[in-house]
Design a protein that fits this description.
Length: about 250
């Protein structure tokens, strides 16, 4: 059994968007306030984080996260890795493994070399980069993970299947042979940016179509911009088994 906590469900800019006065950005509904997308997975033995964006510190304080045993990284864009330096409180007793594919590891070492160099100065986070590959399962703590190749426009990135849950963000398309990893899901978590066409992300209509094809018992949409609409309005329009996730939502899988 896993407990899932949606630490953030917003796109790269977050919601409300700076300098915007639209109804969503001005909404007083807490479900319309979206930090950058991230998911906490808790089992009896291990806690895993999917993506560690620039809102990570605020998410930890808001949801009282006390333990991180590993981080799964979908890709190297700032809204998914901008909080890695803030992992330092979780490294007091041991290294925190960061699981990513080779290209992402290279980008991290270039962008924040002080976190990964051989001669680190005191106070930097103690992180251990662990290379993973699509279609090759691995164990993070006591949690078995299957990386899934998806496409963020032309950029190859990772989704993850864990048990009967799959997490996919920033996807525009998926290679047909990767669909085998998405059979028999209880929960599908997938991106739905907004209502218009976008070159590198699914819009809501495309996300609904993808979810219908997968046929999970429950689907939750993430990585939404303010242009998706007011949560209380748009969530009611989705098929019965589908919902827009919101920050702080918790599920048991």
């Amino acid at each position: 059994m896993m407990k899932l906590t949606f630490l953030g469900t917003g796109t790269s800019i977050g919601v409300p968007e700076m300098l915007c006065g639209c109804p969503v950005c001005m909404s007083r509904d807490a479900k319309d306030k979206r930090l950058r997308s991230s998911l906490l997975i808790e089992t009896e033995e291990s806690n895993l984080l999917i993506d560690c964006g620039p809102d990570f510190r605020e998410q930890v304080l808001r949801y009282d996260v006390r333990r991180i045993d590993g981080v799964l990284v979908t890709h190297e864009h700032y809204d998914h890795v901008g909080g890695i330096d803030d992992l330092r409180p979780f490294c007091a007793d041991s290294d925190v493994p960061v699981y990513a594919e080779r290209m992402v590891i290279e980008h991290l070492m270039e962008r924040i070399p002080y976190c990964f160099g051989n001669n680190k100065y005191p106070g930097t986070p103690s992180l251990k980069l662990m290379e993973i590959s699509p279609d090759t399962s691995f164990s993070a703590g006591n949690i078995d993970v299957m990386p899934i190749r998806v496409m963020h426009g032309k950029l190859p990135i990772m989704g993850f299947r864990i048990g009967r849950m799959a997490y996919i963000t920033d996807m525009k398309s998926i290679p047909e042979d990767e669909m085998r990893h998405l059979n028999d899901l209880d929960v599908l978590i997938v991106n739905a940016l907004h209502t218009k066409e976008h070159p590198t992300h699914q819009n809501v209509m495309q996300a609904v179509g993808f979810a219908e094809r997968i046929g999970a018992e429950r689907t939750f949409f993430i990585h939404m911009s303010h242009r998706v609409g007011l949560h209380a309005v748009v969530d009611e329009k989705l098929p019965q088994s589908m919902h827009f996730a919101y920050d702080g939502l918790q599920l048991i899988v």
